[in-house]
Amino acid sequence: MGSSLLVVPLTTVTHHSEAEAHLAKVDPVMGRLIRDVGPCTLRPDRRRTLFESLARAIAYQQLHAQAAESIIRRLVAQCPGQRFPRPEQILALSEESLRAAGFSRSKIAALRDLAEKTLDGTVPAKRELSRLDDEAIIERLTVVRGVGRWTVEMLLIFQLGRPDILPVTDFGVRNGVRLVYGLRIMPTPERVRRYGERWKPHRTVATWYLWQAVDRAKQK
Fold it and tell me: DSSP label at 29?
């Protein structure tokens, strides 16, 4: 898994108890994983705007987290007085300024496209976003240059808290399925999708547990 969005630990163990009970009931293998890992501590971080989250995702593409955060800090420094630049401020910055912050030409084009599509309403405001289903959000946001389905799925999980997201192309999810179900080879996205049918409507929590399985295997 790779994402600039945050996971904030829960202070209680009841937030995902319904999802955990469902997963354990419909899938004994997942049930054993849940018992081994313990309660799910996934909680969305809703503090960032959609524009900021997507801008950060663009900055992070193909970079280590430390390098991407340095770029973000330099970008923010060019718009003093703001916690994060607004779309109109991004459009007002010259290409030289964005290059000086560390953005490549392709990322500058993506960032400007995001700013324009935020201002023209293609990227929905929070109120409209709450009325859209998962696939509608994916369809709307993937028209932004440089924003693919995986990026939006991470947003749906970590910022919007949507409960039934299974990013089948995610390497961590696929590897988690391989480890948990004892597969000899890495499962295809389609095979992961078929596994996930039994986890509906709580595939987000199942995704989190698959990521934990990979982390535990690395620690061992």
Answer: H
Alpha carbons 33 and 195: distance in angstroms, whole number: 15
d(CA 83, CA 121): 22
Shared domain check, 56 and 39: no
Instruction: Sort 78 into a burial class: Cβ within 10 Å, 0-12 / 13-18 / 19+.
Output: middle
* pTM for this predicted structure: 0.86
Residue 81: both structure tokens together: 């007085």
Q: What is the CATH number of the domain that holds 190?
A: 1.10.1670.40
| Residue 152 burial (CB count, 10 A) | 25
Instruction: Let me know: does 3 contact 154? Beta carbons within 8 Å.
Output: yes
Which of 44, 42, 8 lies closest to 130 in space, CA to CA?
44
How confident is the model at residue 2, as a pLDDT? 42
Task: Give the Cα separation of 119 and 31 in Å (integer).
Answer: 45
Active site residue 170: yes
Binned average pLDDT, 10 residues per bin, the chain of 220 residues: 39 72 97 97 90 94 91 94 94 96 96 97 89 96 96 94 96 97 97 97 98 93
Range of the domain at 205: 17-44+164-219
pLDDT of 3:
41
Write down the catalytic residue from 133, 134, 170, 215: 170
pLDDT at res. 102: 96
CB 106 within 8 A of CB 63: no
Q: Considering the domain boundaries, does residue 69 fall inside one? A: yes
